[in-house]
Amino acid sequence: QVQLVESGGGLVQPGGSLRLSCAASETIFRLDMGWYRQAPGKQRELVAVITRGGFTNYADSVRGRFTISRDNAKNTVYLEMNSLKPEDTAVYYCNSRPPARDYWGQGTQVTVSS
Description:
The chain is mostly beta strands. It has no helices and ten strands. It is globular and about 40 Å long. It starts with a strand and ends with a strand.
């Protein structure tokens, strides 16, 4: 089964930027992929989707600030995050869309704070 490893998180000031990566252990070109996040005390939510054909969609809260992309040759999905806000603080995960229970990884922590 596919294993997904997220990286690129960290501590950033409000208004800053980060680029997250999600590396898959095998080919994912047939899958629609998504980035999800879970903030403390909140349910996990979907923030961005990219279809196998390259079409993208975003949650209203991140539209215009986040960009999802994929490199099928590298089996990797990216999330470029700009103009970060404190409310973007969460653990970020990638998974297929819809998510597969066995694909959840450890996630990567993003903390936006001054």
